[in-house]
Design a protein that fits this description.
single chain, 237 residues, mainly alpha, two-stranded antiparallel sheet, 5 helices, 71% helix, 7% strand, elongated, binds zinc ion, transmembrane helix, Palmitoyltrfase_DHHC
Length: 237
């Protein structure tokens, strides 16, 4: 009886020890090291993949800054492109409103107040300025500012445009709003919704000049009316 009990005890002890050994062997040592080595391998592979995707021998802090600010630049450019259309409508609307006011109030006053030769001079001068403003604005808006020739290899150039990957002749700049290189670029004008460059610079300059003259003419010719209206308001107060 005693020996049978001892035999049973030693047998169960042996079984427990074997299970423990198996558990240690199965869960602890081998598998854990395998998982950690697999994870390390995956990590180093991901690092290598990222490095190979981002590697560029020309990359520097400027390129990094460009990449960081690229979304902001894209939003500003898109908004300016959209604002260009709105600004052109605003120019047409404001100029038309001034012309309508002149036709409705200023011209009848001039005709009724001034002698014939002065009225004729006013009419000719006013219409000449209106014609010049309209013509130069239309031409400045619709004329292409000029772009570097695409298929000519012997173009004298000073650098290469990074965006278009084409040679840039002297005084050529890339317009990020039009997304094209512009010859003798002055600036991108939102009021024209166009770049001011080699071929439309004179139209832009003439438009600015005639618009200034037109403003001065309107201010001088309606000065009496303005004073009258101002005094009337003052008297009411
Ligand atoms: Zn370009
Ligand atoms: Zn432009």
């Amino acid at each position: 009886m005693g020996s049978a009990w001892r035999w049973q005890l030693s047998r169960s002890m042996r079984l427990v020890l074997r299970w423990c050994r198996q558990q240690r062997g199965g869960r602890g040592g081998g598998s854990r090291t395998q998982i950690s080595s697999r994870l390390l391998e995956l990590w180093s592979y991901s690092k290598l993949l990222l490095h190979s995707l981002c590697y560029n021998s020309l990359a520097d802090s400027d390129t990094l800054l460009d990449c960081v600010f690229e979304p902001i630049i894209w939003i500003v450019d898109s908004l300016t492109r959209w604002f260009g259309v709105a600004f052109v409508c605003l120019v047409v609307l404001l100029t038309s409103s001034v012309v309508i006011i002149v036709y409705l109030f200023v011209i009848p006053t001039i005709i009724s107040t001034y002698p014939v030769h002065w009225a004729a001079w006013h009419l000719s001068c006013g219409h000449w300025l209106l014609l010049m403003i309209t013509f130069h604005y239309y031409k400045a808006t619709t004329t292409s500012p000029g772009h570097p020739p695409k298929n000519k290899l012997n173009t004298p150039s000073v650098s290469i445009c990074k965006k278009c990957v084409t040679p840039k002749p002297p005084r050529t700049h890339h317009c990020s709003i039009c997304n094209v290189c512009v010859l003798k670029m002055d600036h991108h004008c939102p009021w024209l919704n166009n770049c001011v460059g080699h071929f439309n610079h004179r139209y832009f300059f003439s438009f600015c000049l005639y618009m200034t003259l037109g403003c001065i003419y309107c201010s001088i010719s309606s000065w009496e009316m303005f004073l009258e209206a101002y005094n009337a308001v003052e008297d009411l107060c």
